[in-house]
Design a protein that fits this description.
Rossmann fold; 16 helices; alpha/beta; 17% strand
């Protein structure tokens, strides 16, 4: 019988996927369950319309890969950010009410919340039942907005994150960079933040369909394809990549037959499209919009290079996925990317410096021997980011939180 029963709270869990958080929580939960020391329960949102009464909201329960998943029916979330914040508050009330029944019925030992979206429900459940509370901080509003968090709704989200970090018995972050960042921004001791890197499972990255036909959609024979993947928001730095590719003296002037592909959607998409038109390169690339994981895994296989030009990046999962798929990487020399992409497995350009990025792109696209070396070294490097090891490290944190002798300092 597992020694620890944990209730993990997340606003998304497959098949409800809003971003990378859903995949992270699923792989962690399944890894914990597979380890045999933890009985894992996940409280999350489900699909379906809002039921007539609150008592009917926790209407879906299932076991997926050894994980007990409890789905709470909620109305769809609004796109407007101010309304979204109010929606999150309402969701937390519903999660807390449903969680109270689960904790009481299941004998939960520990609460593990993921990010500010479920902070209130997680902390209130821990307080109600006198349980340890662990939070994983995947990113911060302060970092996403380069410190500009003094106006609504950013100020509200930053306030919730600050309260969450100080309230939690222990914080998990994905990189040493994030440990220092979280300690500085939220004013907590670094000892209260444990670094556990994100994991990757190469078997999840299998391509589908005809790769030759897919590549032919974007490039002609002999041309090179530069891939940009992620949410189209300012902090991801895609504007730097477009500046490096286009305009006077850009890569497309110096290297013949280069095309780009942007895979993703977000609030910065219209500005990026306008930028491509201003640079005169809109006819030499494609904005594909949001794509599913199956197509994304195939894009890594057909691209000649993946660029991750982030201004703020807690970890760098796109870089890890690209390397695991055999696609060489160029990343910004910033944040968690420094830890995910050491010099021997990828190239790093000076953050926010489009000219530096342009030189790196030209070098990789023009040097086949360099590309082959990067791919070979990366294939070994990615094996260090194993989900089973992530689960083992997380289990040790759970055990420490439950043991009075090993308990971390309380806030």
């Amino acid at each position: 019988m597992p020694a620890i029963r944990v209730l993990i709270l997340s606003w998304e869990y497959p098949p409800v996927v809003e971003g990378g958080l859903a995949r992270h929580v699923r792989k962690l939960a399944e890894g914990l369950a597979a380890g045999g020391e933890v009985e894992v329960h996940v409280l999350t949102r489900g699909n379906g319309s809002l039921p007539a009464t609150a008592a009917d909201r926790l209407a879906e329960e299932e076991v997926r890969a050894g994980v007990f998943v409890h789905r709470l029916r909620e109305p769809s979330w609004p796109k407007d950010l101010d309304r979204f914040v109010a929606w999150v508050e309402r969701m937390n009330v519903d999660m807390r009410e449903a969680g109270e029944e689960l904790v009481d019925r299941l004998g939960i030992d520990l609460i593990h919340g993921h990010d500010w979206l479920v902070a209130s429900a997680s902390a209130r459940l821990a307080e109600r039942f006198g349980l340890p509370y662990l939070t994983t901080i995947h990113a911060t509003e302060f970092g996403r907005h380069q410190g500009w968090v003094d106006t609504s709704p950013q100020a509200h989200i930053h306030g919730v994150e600050t309260w969450m970090a100080r309230r939690a018995d222990q914080v998990v972050v994905c990189s040493h960079y994030m440990r220092g960042h979280v300690a500085d921004v939220f004013g907590i001791p670094e000892a209260r933040a444990t670094v556990i890197p994100n994991g990757i499972d190469p078997s999840d990255l299998q391509p589908v369909g005809d790769l030759e036909a897919l590549r032919a959609r974007y490039v002609a024979p002999g041309e090179k394809l530069v891939l940009l993947v992620g949410r189209l928001v300012y902090e991801k730095g895609f504007q730097l990549a477009l500046d490096a590719l286009g305009g006077p003296g850009g890569v497309m002037e110096r290297v013949e037959g280069v095309r780009f592909l942007v895979a993703g959607s977000g609030t910065h998409e219209a500005e990026l499209r306008a930028q491509a038109r201003r640079l005169g390169i809109d006819g030499r690339g494609t904005f594909e919009g949001w794509i599913g994981d199956d197509v994304l895994h195939s894009l890594y296989r057909i691209a000649d290079l993946t660029v991750v030009p982030s201004i703020y990046e807690p970890f760098g999962l796109v870089a890890l996925e690209a390397m695991a798929s055999g696609c060489p990487c160029i990343v910004a020399d910033t944040g968690g990317l420094r830890e995910v992409v050491p010099p021997e497995v990828g190239l790093r350009f000076r953050s926010r410096d489009a000219a530096s990025l342009g030189r790196m792109i030209e070098r990789v696209l023009s040097d086949d021997a360099l590309r082959d070396r990067l791919v070979l070294e990366a294939s070994e490097h990615v094996l260090r980011f194993d989900w089973a090891d992530v689960a083992r490290q997380t289990t040790r944190v759970y055990a420490a939180l439950r043991s009075p002798a090993l308990h971390y300092p309380s806030p």
